[in-house]
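=== Structural record ===
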Amino acid sequence: MKKHTNILVLILSLVFIYVLLYFSFDQKAVFWYLYTFTMLVGMAFAFAFGKIEDKIKTWEYLLFGIGFGTILYGLIALGYRLLPFLSEELLKTVHQFIKTFGPSTLWHYILLILIIATAEELFWRGYVQQQLKQYMKMPYAVILAAILFAMSLAVSGFWLGVLAAFITGIIFGFLYEWKKSMPIIIVAHLVMITLLFLLLPLY
């Protein structure tokens, strides 16, 4: 009975989050407010129904978090540098997405760093991935959670972003299962987006 209830809550939470994400990307003028609200709802689901673990020391999650965040930024930056050799149109889609939805004010950066990055990891890795593990083996749960995470960007129509989100979801998902530490993937996520949008922006 409990498993049936858990899967029902999971499905309803995903539907609710996807609907909110659709409206977030559709309403460009208030995107940052709607997206932040959506992630706060996801965070609430994570705290209510998820499994948030932290089984390692502070120095270890900082070391691994900074390391993996930097590596992920490097992979994204490498992919971006290769785009002109593959397709100018693909490069234009990246520029258009960043121009439309990328952080452009101090308030956006505050929301991104203090709320959004943390909430995304709590919901997708701390809640969705952990719920899926009740019904399938861990590697499949990580992959499916990464697919569901990537689909959250599909409503924007930015397919390169979907691919990047899937790869990021895979890495963060297995990292969480390996180290059993939510702070690791939150730090990694924060490092990645800080490099990506603030310190070493691609565009």
